[in-house]
Amino acid sequence: NAEAMKEKKASSEVEHRAGYCAFYDECGRNPTVGESLIPPIVPCLNYSRARQVTGDHYRRLKQVCPMLDFGESNTYACCSLQQIASLETSLTLSKAVLIRCPSCADNFAHLYCATTCSPNQTLTVNVTKVMNVTHLGRPRDAVVAYQAYISSTFAEGAFQSCKNVRIPATGGFAIATMCGRYGSKLCTAQRWYDFQGDTSNGLAPLDIDFRLLKENDTTGVPEGMIPYNGRALGCNENTTTGGMACSCQDCLDSCPRVPPPPPLPEPFRIQGMNGFLVISIILLCLLICAFVVYLIVSHYVKSKNGKNLKVTCVLLVAAIIVVVFSVGLKSIKLTTDPVELWSAPNSRARQEKDFHDKHFTPFFRTNQLILTAPGRKGHLYDSLLFGKQNFSGLISKSLILELLDLQRRIQFWSEDLNRTATLKDVCYAPLNPSNPSLTDCAVNSLPQYFQNSLDNINAKVNMTELGVTQEVDWRDHLIYCLNSPLSFKDITDLGMSCMADYGAPVFPFLAVGGYKNDEYTNAEAFILTFSLNNYLRDNPKFKVALQWETEFLKIVQDYQRNPKANFTFAYMAERSLEDEINRTTAEDIPIFMISYAVIFVYIAVALGEYSSCKRLLVDSKFLVGLGGILVVGCSVLASMGFYSWIGIPSSLVILQVVPFLVLAVGADNIFIFVLEYQRDARRLGETREEQIGRVLGQVAPSMLLCSLSESVCFFLGALSTMPAVKSFALYAALAVLMDFVLQMTAFVALLSLDARRQDNNRCELLCCVTVSTRRPNKPNEGFLLPFMRKYYAPVLLHLGVPVYFVTKKGYNFNTVEGMDGVCSSVGCDQFSMTQKIRYATDYPERSYMAIPANSWVDDFIDWLNPGSKCCRLYTSGPNAGNFCPANITGLSCLKKCLASPSDGVVRPTMEEFSRFLPDFLGNRPDLQCSKGGLGAYDTAVVRDQNGEIIATRFMAYHTPLTNSQEFTAALLKARELAKKITSDMRKIPGTSPDFEVFPYTITYVFYEQYLTIVKEGLFNISLCLLPTFVVCCLLLGLDLRSGLLNLITIIMIVVDTVGVMTLWSIDYNAVALINLVTAVGISVEFVSHMTRSFALSTKMTRVERAKEATATMGSAVFAGVAMTNLPGILVLAFAKAQLIQIFFFRLNLVITLLGMAHGLVFLPVLLSYFGMNIYRCVAGSLSFGGETCVTPAASYGNH
């Protein structure tokens, strides 16, 4: 009744003196505590002498509180046998996470042994609140609150011994679960004890007000009381019962002296300046000086010397060849998987990925939303428990409910499952993988702090704290959970859990973003992450996962288009990268079509020779331009068809780049051929076909020079190990070769037909219509040739970008040496595998490791520890001798799996290891045993049919990586660390010599290319440059100097392109490498024609020959290469895809402009100074049969 439950104050007449108890025995449940995670059993008020303990009572006290043992005949205590049992049960919960560090576990138990069982209890404990309860049928005074006076020296020592103890499964600190809203970062000894003494945490049976006092400080201490000042063990000390010191992982004082990594090399400097810059300046000055000396010497030497085809058949055969090759397109396979595109099958990262996916299934699929609500005003919330807290405009109840509604929407009909599919059909459910429900799915978001429950979000209750009564609601719960995400019960009267509905914690950085200094309620972004199981591509559920992601993207996009939506957000699905590759093609095909159309119109117009308005339709070259475009298209189709025949897959990059490349190359050859024909005068008695043949004989070597150089260049580029680069090079090489063959056959026939039409004065498209105005007989120079000859050439020539450590088969985890070589808890090797990873985290800026690896070996050892409640055996019933989970209560599971070791170092035998490992991996973690392996480790250990471990993984975390340089450096450092680990683990007895540890994360296959991409790029570009030099020398009659000048200019174009890439924020990656290889091909077009034209010129001096080459061939190159590329490239600026804008518009624009600058500006000047003299008889091109011989002596130094 109400009278019986009235509150009583503790008697003020209690005398605080040694040998007396303040309470004794148990009085049932605490009537002031509602729902609790464990029964809140409280003691009975009983001021009396301490009792001598003997027999079983003594043995239990010695086991639980060894620091109170003074021998069986001389040990007194203030706790009954039943109290000791309850104390042991309560301590077991904490020991589950602290037992890794024996001295910490002892210190933790020490405090409660001192306040609960010490024979001098009244010296430390001051009862402040009792209540009258009925227990076992009689009224008793139950203690529901007391003060505990503790020396700050002891409290701080105990706290320091525990503050670094880790939870291997999460990589976090155990103290974070025991300090309430302060977490591990802000936890102090006082806050640690305050949380433990607060009944609102769901674990404390009564309220304890811990008063921590410094030595000789008696402020507020009742008369006669002495703050408890036992000795707290250091974490690097052995316990009194023989337990070993804590490991380095849990105790910094136990760490050996690990030499810091060597300092980074000092930057190369000369006199305080950048050394490379100084050397570059010196080299530039030397080159300028050498050039000046060359001019002086040249001037001195000069002053000393003083001196009719079957057109139809050809077209038909060409068409048949193209059709035969193109039929292979029916078997074309497009590679869209980014892994297949950018990672070679035999690369290290790819092999490690395949090993990981084979044994552990592919990395789970991540689908994420980042939501913001800009412009919303925040508010200040005055919390009863936490004081004034700023809440951003985003952190509001309405938006949390809207976020919850958004994450519940996604469901669809699945043909593969023949039913409506939801998240549970494909989600990653770590704690119930076999038959998950929707609440088992790993969804990380802010509503998970409320278990995705509307009722929990709407919950509110009046609460009294320090005499103040105020309403607490979702905000108080959220503040608490953001700072203590591992809590099973908040400290408000709401009494709700912070754990997600799927049973795991949601760390604040997974739920919110855009905050500073851990001020989570000031966050500017919600983070919503769906984790899906990943499957091999031939698994039907892979399609279902893709369908779910498609629906996810559709719902998000529909929501985004809704004008009433309160959020603005960014989003991505696992399939987004592959979708983006496909989307760029689908959305930007019109852009490419427009680009090609612009190029076609330009070619058709620019090829025309316009002498009068009346002959406009006669002299236009629309059909010739169309024919040239068709030749390019047919060469690309033939190339793609051929490789499809033989089973080499294509890619969207090939579809976009190769036509563009072949068009640039082909258009140049077309312009050179057509313009040369237009500028040539037909000789007396010469037929049209003979004239075309003669002109072709003049230009075909130049066309062969460029086409053969480019084709060999690309064929050699196919030696690349990157699949995308290799396939591109193969397709491009054959396409360029086919383009040349078709130009020498089909296009010549088309030009012959068009010339016949033009000679007959027939209009294009309207062939029956003729005009009366005759075609002028003189050669048509067009506009560019006179301009180049009269103005340009003379002026120019006088200007002068979570990680697993995976173990392979060959390591004995079940031996003591094997466990010690991996684990990081007490008794483990100080330089074990996980310890090395932990040491790496001390230097995150160098190692890129943020959090030590979780370790199933450590948690398995802790799970087996008899000091916890995790591993027990049934002692009776049908399951006698089998594993008994910690949540089974009663007397049927009294036997521990292992006996307590004398030194506190638990190590199972090989038989025990094999017997209990499956039980550990299948044990779901809960409050009674947080060390269960289900969810954290059940997929991390792979065993064969004989139970031998053939693969395991240990999960650590990289530091945040933001660009390709950091991703690449992280991969390199992780591999270095894994190599050291492998080397040391191979020294452990019984380890196979081919045993290996390697790091793996899903991004490695993409960023491995950056480890070798510089070497790969140099190799590929060098392979491309080599044939351009060789072919140029051979086709110019072993003219080494012309070949060398040709090569130097092409190298300068490539080098300058790389420089501009840096200035224009174009990353150097595999796509850029493809474009650089392309740059070599396009550079050949700008350079080689000019070089050959100069070499074959019959002018007497180098300047005159350079002028002639610039005027005649320069105009053709400008019209055929520069002006063909530029209009199409400029159209690409309007593409939506960033890939197209950066790597196609920007990079191709740079390549074209630099090629034009070097080919039409730099090269003519270079040739005028260093070009080859006339050294051989040149067949007279102006008079048939005539021959002019110019000897080197006659022309030496002519400038």
From TrEMBL:
Alphabetical UniProt keywords: Cholesterol metabolism, Disulfide bond, Glycoprotein, Lipid metabolism, Membrane, Signal, Steroid metabolism, Sterol metabolism, Transmembrane, Transmembrane helix, Transport
Subcellular compartments: Endomembrane system
The UniProt record lists the keyword Transmembrane: yes
Coiled-coil ranges (or none): none
Membrane topology listed for this record: Multi-pass membrane protein
Principal location listed in the UniProt entry: membrane
Record-annotated membrane-spanning stretches: 275-297, 309-329, 589-610, 622-646, 652-675, 695-722, 728-753, 1018-1038, 1044-1064, 1071-1091, 1111-1135, 1147-1172
Catalytic reaction equation(s): cholesterol(in) = cholesterol(out)
MF term (GO), any: cholesterol binding
Xref: Pfam families: NPC1_MLD, NPC1_N, Sterol-sensing
Alphabetical list of PROSITE patterns matching this protein: SSD (PS50156)
Any GO CC annotation of this UniProt entry: endomembrane system
GO biological process terms held by the UniProt record: cholesterol homeostasis; cholesterol metabolic process; cholesterol transport; intestinal cholesterol absorption
SSD domain location: 588-753
Gene3D superfamilies named in the record: Multidrug efflux transporter AcrB transmembrane domain (1.20.1640.10)
Entry keyword annotation includes Transmembrane helix: yes
Homology family: Belongs to the patched family.
Protein name: SSD domain-containing protein
